[in-house]
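Morning run. Coffee first, then this:
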Amino acid sequence: QVQLVESGGGLVQAGDSLRLSCAASGRTFSVYAMGWFRQAPGKEREFVAFVTFERTTHYADAVKGRFTISRDNAKNTVNLQMNSLKPEDTAVYYCAAKPAGRTWYEGYWGQGTQVTVSS
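And here it is:
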C-alpha cells in the first residue's frame, strides 16, 4: 500500500498562485508515476498533470503553460505549482500514484485538497 497526503489548497483570487504538495509513504518503490487530478462540482474527475520516475512530464491542455509538476524521488514528494489561476480551476485536487503496469484508477489516491479561485 501507498499512502498519499496532500497539502497546500486554499482560496485565492484569479491570477494568483498556489503550490500543492503530496507526500507518499509506504511501498513507494512500486510507484512509477505520480500525478494530479481534479474534480469540480457536478463534473467528472479529470487529469491535470503527471510526472514519471524519470521526470518526464505531461499536462492537460487546460493547464499547460500555467501549471508545473515536479517530483523529488528521494523524498517521495510531488508538487504542483499553479500560476495564473482561473475561476475554472476551482476543484478538489487529488494526488495519485500509479504503479508500473497499472492504470491510474488501479493505483493510489489521496483524500484531496480544495482549491477555490474567486473572480
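The chain has a mean pLDDT of 94. Good start to the day.
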